[in-house]
Amino acid sequence: MITIDTLNQHVGEEKLRATVAAFYRRVKTDPLIGKMYPADDWAGSEKRLADFLVYRFGGPQTYLQERGHPRLRMRHLPFSIGLAERDQWLKLMGEAMREVEISPEAAEVMIPFFAQVADMMRNRPE
What we know:
By secondary structure, the protein is mostly helical. Helix content is 63%, strand content 0%.
């Protein structure tokens, strides 16, 4: 059975990083959430998300070693995130997962995780 803590083992770090790369290819051209990302640090943003997911899904702790505790909500406070932004983030991540062919079993664990985290990032009343 795949769990959050064993996703890296089942999916593999390479495929997790490929998922993040596919996600960022979409974000770069997205009119809604693309503008939230620093234009001069696409590679850094991609690396941080990939490192976070690899760590959170049971892989090496590179993210913690380089960045410390994730503090995701605090790090996202400068950005106005409502329902539309949350939903678009999830849509683009879902497309990225399908592009790299994340297995249905792994997706069953990843999608609820992403939904929970994306909802937690909301900081604008609707």
